[in-house]
Amino acid sequence: MKNFKLYSMVIILFSLIIFSSFNLYAFPKKSSSLIKDKNLNITKADELKERLSITGYYLGVANFCSYQDTKEKELYKSLKGVAAQTNWKMFLTLNQGWQLVESDLWIAGHGWSGTSTWQQKPIQWRFSVTGCDPQTYDIIYNYLDESVFKVIIYYLYNLSEENFDQNIETLLNLLKNDRKDDYSVAINQIVTIVSDANFENNIQQNNIQETTIENYNASDQNNENNENSENSIDERLMKLKKLFEKELISEEEYKKKKEEILSEF
Q1: Which residues face 87 on adjacent strands?
Q2: What is the mean pLDDT of the chain?
Q3: CA-CA-CA-CA torsion sign (60, 20, 52, 187)
Q4: What is the pLDDT of residues 199-229, one digit of tens each?
Q5: Domain-by-domain residue ranges, the chain?
Q6: Residue pair 187/88 in contact by the 8 Å Cβ criterion
Q7: Torsions phi, psi for 87 (to 5 deg)
Q8: Using 50, 70 and 90 to split pLDDT, how confident is the model at 92?
């Protein structure tokens, strides 16, 4: 009888893993990824892999907690797809982090639901997670808010500065033309980041542990010593117009970003 129960649990575990892997991560296809290299091929590849794994874990926790107390659910749910469209290796590494959550829940005898009643022992959470509580939400959501820059943008910039603009443009096209999912929130955040006046300075700091997303959403209106401010605004307006002409952003988004840039002049 005990052997039968053990066998049944193994079958259920296997089914959960297969279901999660294919249902949650069956898109987009590997062939559609922007970068098809099997390795990340950047200087801080190990650091980026760790960040991807933590991102995946926090996404798994957010999903387990039903994305409570956040208005950015659509952005978070799109991150795995954005990673897959960027580089398949990144997607696989992020997926491993997600599967750690499934493993931790299973070991604790917990169903894939935050309201399950058949938990047998405390869940051994990782990366400072304590459960579906405000403290955890602060940690995981702050981390996920920065993932587009600290993972996607950081990777593409360090992969090739020379081809960065072209790679961003191609990625935006891939996301926009995806027929299965809506990546409009992620697209908007990418455009906001790359068109910010401080982007070059922030990306070159090479310390993704200390940089926060506020650096890329806030305009440096008080920097009177920036001798190239007018040129910077011209370049950003040209880049923004190029994105609009290629229909990578809507007219409403174009006008909004244009007003933000001109307000700094």
Answers
A1: 35
A2: 79
A3: negative
A4: 888 787 754 444 444 443 443 344 344 445 5
A5: 44-145, 148-262
A6: no
A7: -155, 125
A8: very high
HSE-CB of 165 using CA atoms within 13 angstroms: 10
pLDDT above 70 covers a percentage of the chain that reads 74
Residue 88 has phi, psi (to 5 degrees) of -65, -35
Task: Look up residue 120 and give its amino acid.
Answer: Q
For residue 6 the two structure tokens come to 């053990």
Let me know how long the chain is. 265
pTM above 0.85, yes or no: no
Rg of the chain (C-alpha set): 21
Q: Which of 128, 189, 160, 137 is nearest to 34 (CA)?
A: 160
- pLDDT confidence of residue 13: 52
The first and second tokens of residue 2, run together, are 């005990």
